[in-house]
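Hi all, posting the design record for the shared folder.

TITLE: backbone redesign
STEP: 1 of 1
STRUCTURE INPUT:
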């Protein structure tokens, strides 16, 4: 069997399998520590990126739901449910995401506002600069905003 370190650049899947085997067998001295650390850090960044993306999509569809009540669709509601559930699952699996949620919220809302402008054709001014939904409402199952007129 090739040394695990050489597998990283030639057969990533085999590198993963061998790394898992070495960990299970407690053969820590044979591990490719440098690349293992790199992959774990990349996995963390990827997970956070997914969480951020779900928040932006959830906010986008909540904005569309509130400010375009005459265009509401099952796909918008489905998207709200899907992305909220993904976030709730992430928060359940990793409670340490709660401070991250607080940290990224305003930026995600600004991004969602821009996406809402692009998707709806409405002026950016239609969507408030400050999020019209509370952080708690956004994560509340079954929450849907009222029309802008209500």
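Okay, here is what came back for every position:
SEQUENCE:
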């Amino acid at each position: 069997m090739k040394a695990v370190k050489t597998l990283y650049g030639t057969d990533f899947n085999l590198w993963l399998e061998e790394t898992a085997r070495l960990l299970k067998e407690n053969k820590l001295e044979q591990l490719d520590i440098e690349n293992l650390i790199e992959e774990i850090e990349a996995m963390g960044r990827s997970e956070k990126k997914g969480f951020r993306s779900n928040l932006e999509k959830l906010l986008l569809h909540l904005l569309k739901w509130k400010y375009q009540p005459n265009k509401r669709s099952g796909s918008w509601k489905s998207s709200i449910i899907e992305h909220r559930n993904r976030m709730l699952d992430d928060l359940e699996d990793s409670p340490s995401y709660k401070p991250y949620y607080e940290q990224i919220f305003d930026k995600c809302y600004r991004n969602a506002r821009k996406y809402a402008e692009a998707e709806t054709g409405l002026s950016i001014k239609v969507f408030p600069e400050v999020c019209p939904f509370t952080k708690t409402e956004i994560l509340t199952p079954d929450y849907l905003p009222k029309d802008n007129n209500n």
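COMMENT: Residues 50-138 form one domain.
Let me know if anyone wants the other runs.
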